[in-house]
Structure formats: C-alpha cells, structure tokens
Amino acid sequence: SQQGEEDPQALSIQEGENATMNCSYKTSINNLQWYRQNSGRGLVHLILIRSNEREKHSGRLRVTLDTSKKSSSLLITASRAADTASYFCATYSKGSGNTGKLIFGQGTTLQVKP
Amino acid sequence: DVKVTQSSRYLVKRTGEKVFLECVQDMDHENMFWYRQDPGLGLRLIYFSYDVKMKEKGDIPEGYSVSREKKERFSLILESASTNQTSMYLCASSLGAGLAGRYGPYNEQFFGPGTRLTVL
Q1: How many angstroms separate the CA of residue A20 from the nearest CA in chain B?
Q2: A98 close contact with B: CB closer than 8 A
Q3: How far is CA B42 from CA A9, A90, B37, in A?
C-alpha cells in the first residue's frame, strides 16, 4: 500500500489564490519529496525536505514537515493557470537501505481557473 | 539538464505479445526504476536497478521482467502481454545512494515522459 496519502484528492481555485495540499505518511522517513505531473506526462521533482527540517521554500512553493504528526504540506502561493497539474508526495523510509526507493502517494489534482 | 527518454509515447499491443519498453538516461545515474500509474492506484514500483546487471523487485513485479546490460539503459519486458497491463509506464533514474549527491544518499528521481501502453 502507498505510504503517503494526499489530501484533498482534488482542488479547484481561482488564479491568484493560494493552494494548500497535505500529505500524511505512516513510518519514519529520511526525507519527503514533492513532485508535479502535468496531464499525461512524467513527474517533475519540485522540492525535497529532510526529516530534520521543518520548512523549506522554493520560489512560490513552501513545504512544511511535522514528523511528530507524520505529515507535510505544500503551499503554492499566487497560483497561476500553469500550476494546473497533479501533485504527489513521496517518501524514503529509514531502513530502506541504499537502494533509493521512493514511495508515492496517490496525488492531489489541482485546477487553477484563469 | 538530466534527460530520461522512453522509446515510445504510445504503444498498442495484442494479448500474448512480448513487449519491450526501453528507457535511457544521460546523467550517469546508478539507480533506475520502472513504475506503472493507474487511476486511483497512484504510482506503483515494478522493478528497480541500482547497478548494471543488478535488479530488485518492486511492489508489483508479477508479469514483468527487466534488463540492465548498460548503465544508461533499463528495459522493461512484458513476456506475454495481458489486458490488465494496460497502463501508463514511467521510467525514472537517480544518483546512487551513498554518493555525494545534492541531498546525500536519497536523491530526487528524474522521470521520463511515460509510455501509454494499451493491450487489446
């Protein structure tokens, strides 16, 4: 079963508004990553936050991590129509060895209306 | 820029055919992965490889095999395609664990554009 679970499954907002997506996971992690997928395409890495970090920024993206609650959130500020995509969280669990295996959630579909 | 390419964007095959999906990366990455993506099920790992000629089963290896003869190329093989293997197939690569990547041993993965396979 998937480790990460995103919430909500779907989100529809107006251009200029902020979008917040949440991810919960079950086991201890080394890091948590967020990816974006445009319709019918491959995934693109957005940001990585390590287990000893609480917040990270990249442009209009802000990611928080609460390891006590086993949850993360992705905030996209001042959204644009081009942000329309599916967003996935992915985790490396501690103890998974050196094989670089990621476990993906099922994603949040974001629609930004012009 | 890292580039991961997949041999086909769209593929239509018949039940029972042997199907080869090819993936090539140009960044000298040690790790390569094959996922399938289905609505409501997310991404599921089929197989991965952390070195040439090395492979490990992922979560759903049944009905699939892989080959990694060269570092840059990772092939997914459907020995006898079935209709339940109709899916989007995504290949990815990453630096090897333990190497000095940007984030230490557990690095971001770079994905190809995907192959949408239909088995009739």
Answers
A1: 20
A2: yes
A3: 11, 11, 5
